[in-house]
Amino acid sequence: MADKHRNMSALRALAGALAALLALAWAAPAAAAPSPRDVSYLIATHQGNLYAIAAGKLAAQRGTNEDVRRLGQTFVDDHTRLDAELRTLAQQLKVPLTDQLDGPEQDQLKVLAAAPAGDAFDQLWITKQIEQQGQLYNGIDLELNYGYDERVKNLARDADDVILAHIGELNTVDREVSAPAG
C-alpha cells in the first residue's frame, strides 16, 4: 500500500513538473525578443508616423489649397491613431522608441517648414508625402512578407489600407493642384 501511495505521489509530482514545463514552453514564444526585422519595422514606422503628423500639421496650417489642408488634418488624425497602436505594441515588446524625429524625416520636415506659403508649399508637401507614404507602404510590404511576430504583422495589416488610401488621395489632390488654372 505504501508503494502504491509513493507511486501515486511520484506520478502527481511528475505530472505537476510536466505541466510546469509545458506552461513555460507555451509562454516562451510570447516572451521571446522580437526579430531584428520586426524591431526595424516598428522603429522606422514610428519615425514615419512622427513625420506624417508633423507634416500634416504644417499642411493644415500653411496649405493654401483646401484639399491639402484637409488631407494634412487627415494625416494628423490617422497617423496619431496608428502611432498610438504602434507605441502600445512596442512597449509590450520592449522596443524603445524616441519621441523625436531623426534622420531623413527630420531633414524633410525642415525643408517643408522653410518652404514659402502658397502653391509652391502645397506642391512640395504633396510630393514629399507621396514619397513618404510610399516608403511606409514599402515597409509594410517588407514586414508582411518577412516579419516574424504576428502582432507586428497585424499592426502592419491594419496600417496597409490607411496608407493606400493616403496615397490615392495624394495622387488625386496632386492632379488637382498641378492642373493649370483655366
Automatic annotation (TrEMBL):
<dbReference type="Pfam" id="PF13628">
    <property type="entry name" value="DUF4142"/>
</dbReference>
<keyword id="KW-0732">Signal</keyword>
<dbReference type="InterPro" id="IPR025419">
    <property type="entry name" value="DUF4142"/>
</dbReference>
<feature type="domain" description="DUF4142">
    <location>
        <begin position="38"/>
        <end position="170"/>
    </location>
</feature>
<feature type="signal peptide">
    <location>
        <begin position="1"/>
        <end position="32"/>
    </location>
</feature>
<protein>
    <recommendedName>
        <fullName>DUF4142 domain-containing protein</fullName>
    </recommendedName>
</protein>
<dbReference type="InterPro" id="IPR012347">
    <property type="entry name" value="Ferritin-like"/>
</dbReference>
